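quick one before i forget lol
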Amino acid sequence: MDMTISGSGQIAAGEYDRVRTSGSGRLNGLVRCSSFHSSGSVNGEEIECKNAFVTSGSSRFSKSVRAESLSTSGSFACGGDITVKKGMGCSGSSESGGNIKCGTLIASGSFSARGDIEAETVKIDGKVKCDGLLNAEEITIKFKSGSKIRNIGGSKIVIYGHSNPEKRVRLPLFSSLMKKGGGDSLCVEESIEGDSIALEGVAAQRVSGRVVAIGEGCEIEMVQYSETLEVSPDAKVGRTEKI
């Protein structure tokens, strides 16, 4: 059975086929459905979608969101965990009160998680905050001021800022790992660990990798590397160690 809200209405807990809301909608309890599409304003508790979860406007869920794929634009907030089997795409303001687990994460605007973020590929353009571990095979972050992450782990990690992308004179390794960069600063409260790592404008206690490029604007207390290290003269590195 399909459920549709047009204007203002509520949907009770239960199992449905397609659920659509436009205007102002409220979902009570756990809603299970084949797909969910919302435009306008929607508030709910917990939702499970076999297929796509799509919202535009304002959407808030106090507990968990689970879906095959997820796409949000505008303002999206989830009080608990977000679990997406395939792609998760967010533009605007997005926040999770728990952990995020997905296949691919592509986000622009403001993106935050109070727990861990786990994915195969992460691409973030904007302000990012993660109170736990951001872990993925490939991580690309083009950050804006005020970004903060506790720990980062992955295979290929490239982090750089927004401003003055064309005026940098980059280290050869950094140039080979990314296309554009420049910017303010991103704070990594503890460590960054990966295989190939290229950083600009990053402050961290420890960076550890096989191939590491520390670009300008970085402030790193300890850099550990096993193969290659490049450090910009405009970076501050407390100590280096070949492991």
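fyi The chain is about 0% helix and 70% strand.
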